[in-house]
Design a protein that fits this description.
The protein has two domains: about 450 residues, no CATH class; about 80 residues, no CATH class. About 80% of the residues lie in helices and about 0% in strands. The longest helix is centred in the middle third of the chain and has 42 residues. It is mainly alpha-helical and about 525 residues long.
């Protein structure tokens, strides 16, 4: 059995994301313990959404999608001088833009609150405005972090760029663990937490700079003149920002709708979204991020027929790898999500009611988990060939469906405490629409996305998942009276062990690697 380079790269991305997500869940646990799911948590969550949206629009995935293909092409031609010049010139442009946007965001904080949190009462709205002013500079810092990430990924350095986000969480953990009980009120604690969040963004950038300096040479932002390569990156950024802007519009719409539901709905939606994004980040983003530099090099170095075959193989392998993890994750969230929520969040101000609401919302998100994760990989193929318009068009259609579905479901069941789950279900419906459009287009261009071996691997994943769910369901009744920290590991551990063993028996190489066993037969695309 051989180890594919793409699998190793995806593993490094996943390892980095796992470190940051574990730190994020510790942060979330402390936040749930000390802030619960009430008014102060609603205000902090809404205030954080604005700089987070800016980060998603101008940093991390956006810069990688627009910058890495151009930068990687220069590296493929051994033009290190040109690559270094591109990096420094782009940094200068980014510094100017984010400085202006940060000042504008701070000045417009009251307007942003009125637009995004129209359903908040006066007290929550006032706190949201104060927190936005503290948190908005985080957006600029995260854009710089995205620039660092793009350079590292283009040089096939994946772990630190994703693990650095743990520093962002660590600053908040220190604040909550050390001063969570010392605040005079929830409002004061949310204020302190906002400053810790900003400090964490500074640390996230700082830990990446030495590695970036080593890879790309001296960091010297250029503010005079824009080269052809920089213009290419900026031109690429426009449709990428448009695509992610449409997605962010969906997120803002979800929060806007939740603000009109019962108090705490914004927080419940945020908690469920964070849990849902863990497997998406670990596996969907990991495979996609590690594939982008290789796909970009394929486009630059191979003839048309060879490109099509190389891309088809890479997409097929990556998709099966994603499904191996995402399908069982979706089943766990739906069938056993109460245990997941209980283990990770149940403490202090976060009680049984909050656990039930977050589980219901998480289960609704899980309906679209396969689509959420697969769409990341499919969009990466378009980005590698610098086709940014197709994902934009598909996202616009899917987001319209998502918002309409979310609004309709939440409004219909607005009197029910679980009306917030309707918002998550609407997002899942929109994700499946985007999935169908992306898959149809790619399948037509590549002559199909799954080989015969990959199709068999998908059926093996489904069979192993069904077996694991049955085994966990048999164990669950014996743990009803147990604390979730005891019941959760046993039930979910049973699911994982059975899933890996059955997958290995079916011939999965991915399961064999986890179990440190020899694959039973040729594994096809897995």
């Amino acid at each position: 059995m051989t180890t594919r380079p793409g699998g190793r790269a995806a593993g490094l991305v996943a390892a980095g994301i796992l470190v940051s997500r574990l730190a994020g869940f510790v942060r979330t646990w402390f936040a749930a313990r000390y802030l619960g799911a009430g008014a102060a948590q609603d205000a902090y969550t809404m205030a954080l959404r604005v700089p987070n949206a800016m980060r998603n629009l101008l940093g991390e995935g956006t810069l990688s999608a627009a910058f890495v293909p151009v930068y990687s092409a220069l590296l493929a031609r051994d033009d290190t001088r040109g690559a270094r010049a591109l990096a420094n010139a782009l940094l200068g442009v980014l510094l100017l833009c984010v400085s202006a946007l940060t000042l504008l965001g701070i000045a417009l904080a009251p307007v942003l609150t009125q637009v995004l949190a129209a359903g908040f009462d006066a007290e929550r709205a006032a706190l949201t405005t104060r927190l936005i002013r503290v948190l908005f500079p985080m957006a600029g810092l995260m854009v710089l972090s995205g620039w660092c990430l793009g350079i590292q990924n283009a040089h096939r350095r994946f772990f630190l760029s994703y693990a650095s986000a743990a520093m962002w969480s660590l600053a908040q953990i220190v604040l909550l663990a050390g001063w969570g009980t010392r605040a005079a009120s929830m409002t004061q604690l949310a204020w302190w937490l906002a400053w810790a969040t900003l400090a964490g963004a500074v640390l996230q950038v700082a830990v990446q700079l030495p590695e970036v300096w080593r890879l790309a040479g001296p960091i010297r932002p250029q503010f005079a003149g824009v080269s052809g390569d920089v213009r290419t990156v900026l031109r690429n950024l426009v449709p990428v920002i448009g695509t992610l802007g449409v997605v962010q519009l969906s997120g803002f719409a979800d929060s806007f709708i939740a603000a009109y539901l019962a108090e705490g709905s914004v927080s419940v939606l945020s908690f469920a979204n964070q849990l849902m994004l863990l497997p998406v980040a670990l596996f969907g983003i990991a495979v996609s991020a590690s594939s982008l530099p290789e796909l970009a090099r394929d486009q630059a170095a191979l003839a048309d027929d060879a490109v099509r075959r190389a891309v088809q193989t890479r997409v097929s392998d990556g998709w099966v790898r994603i499904l191996f993890y995402i399908v069982p994750s979706a089943v766990v969230f739906i069938a056993f999500g109460d245990l997941v929520v209980g283990m990770l969040l149940r403490s202090g101000a976060f009680g049984a009611r909050e656990q039930q609401l977050v589980h219901g919302t998480l289960a609704a998100y899980a309906v679209g988990l396969v689509a959420f994760s697969s769409n990341r990989l499919f969009a990466t193929v378009f980005h590698a060939r610098q086709d940014y318009r197709s994902p934009l068009r598909f996202s616009m259609v899917s987001v319209f469906v998502s918002i309409a579905s979310a609004a309709g479901l939440a409004w219909t069941f607005r009197a029910h405490p679980l009306a917030v789950a309707g918002i998550a279900l609407g997002a899942a419906v929109g994700a499946w629409v985007n999935f169908a459009l992306l898959r149809q287009r790619l399948g037509r261009e590549l002559g199909g996305l799954l080989s015969a071996g990959a199709s068999r691997a998908v059926w093996r994943v489904l069979g192993a998942t069904a077996s694991a769910a049955a085994a966990a369901a048999l164990v669950r009744p014996f743990t009803r009276a147990w604390h979730q920290w005891l019941a959760g590991p046993l039930v979910l551990g049973s699911f994982a062990v059975v899933y890996l063993l059955v997958s290995w028996w079916f011939g999965s190489g991915e399961a064999a690697r986890w179990l440190r066993l020899r694959a039973r037969r040729a594994e096809g695309a897995t």
